[in-house]
Write a structure and sequence with these properties.
The chain is 8% helix and 46% strand. The chain is mainly beta and 323 residues long. Strands 2, 3, 4, 5, 6, 7, 8 and 9 form an eight-stranded antiparallel β-sheet that branches. The longest helix has 17 residues.
Length: 323
């Protein structure tokens, strides 16, 4: 299965920057191409996930006026919303009605807006995300998508190779009834290919640094028992670089097949600055699930501060080999 286009937006993503206000109040939602908005995180000095994720055994509101005010988080239910789209544009966003939908196999409650780009495809388990919905105002900040083959792109593999090999060794050792057919030394002979690279340059009281999110793969030749789809190691994570310090690399890896079963991809939705802290906002999605996240980005660490499940489907029966 191939990476769907909306996981790799052509334009830089954008979001809201609010600086210097220790009493900032903000609520975020992912905005889908069909105009449905899913609120997922709120900030009032601390991050929370107030909008309900699990609808099981819950009495749901019928109209917007019936929504529990606490579901809106730090903002007033009557707050104005804005859409920050992946093409870099911004527009007012009017919320209209509540609407239930299925994301993968999970029922979710969203808010229909006056935005519309494209209808859902009956063949897809989810809908493309066109940007971020925000209750609040401010300036735009972007997350850069680095172009394939550029100097910046080609410079990453040598920087991450040591941590990639370490993460691969851990991933290969997780299995109890399966052993990787290639030794660590044999695996290291195969090159690392970058598949996606996002980055931003930051400047706060903590200093100046660059943070990148990397998705990289090492592919192995298909064996007869692989049915034409060979093993891969897929690694993703963060690269932090600042002058006078060695690069800090934080990767997690998964050993799977070339169909990338169980692999999650990032779609950046932008970044914000609140109280001199930088936060990336993004979607993580695989072939069977998606989630929406906010992570605090510092020169020496990246820490998730709000994560909301978007929807999922049960795993299919595992094939022989890694799962």
């Amino acid at each position: 299965m191939r990476r769907v286009p909306w996981l790799l937006p052509a334009a830089c993503a954008a979001a809201l920057a609010l600086a210097g206000d220790t009493k900032s109040h903000l609520t975020l939602g992912v905005l889908r191409a069909d105009g449905l908005m899913i609120p997922f995180a709120s900030y009032d000095g601390h991050w929370s996930v107030p909008w309900p994720v699990d609808l099981h055994d819950r009495t749901l509101p019928i109209t917007l006026s019936d929504v529990d005010p606490g579901w809106w988080g730090a903002v007033d239910p009557a707050s104005l919303w804005s859409a920050f789209l992946t093409d870099g544009s911004k527009r007012p966003l009017k919320i209209q009605t509540l609407r239930q939908t299925h994301i993968f196999c999970t029922a979710r409650l969203g808010v229909q807006t006056d935005y519309f780009n494209a209808p859902p495809s009956p063949d897809d388990p989810t809908v493309a995300k066109d940007g971020l919905a925000i209750a609040g105002e401010g300036a735009l900040l972007s997350v850069e998508r680095v172009a394939k083959g550029t100097t910046a792109w080609n410079a990453v593999p040598p920087v991450i190779v040591k941590e990639f090999n370490h993460a691969e060794k851990i991933a290969a050792g997780h299995f109890t009834n399966w052993k990787h057919p290639y030794t660590a030394e044999q695996r290291a002979a195969y090159s690392i290919q970058i598949e996606a690279l996002y980055r931003s340059q930051e400047q706060t009281r903590r200093g100046s640094w660059r943070v990148s999110y990397v998705e990289a793969v090492r592919s192995f030749p298909a064996r007869p028992e692989d049915n034409g789809c060979g093993l891969i190691t897929y690694a993703s994570g963060w690269l932090m670089e600042r002058a006078g310090h060695a690069p800090r690399v934080e990767l997690q890896a998964r050993v799977t097949y070339c169909d990338r079963d169980g692999v999650s991809f990032m779609q950046p939705l932008g970044r914000i600055v609140l109280d001199d802290e930088v936060y990336w906002i993004y979607q993580m999605s695989s072939w069977r699930d998606e989630a929406y996240a906010v992570s605090r980005v510092r020169p020496d660490e990246v820490q998730p501060v709000a994560v909301a499940a978007g929807g999922d489907c049960p795993r299919s029966p595992p094939r022989r080999g890694p799962i």
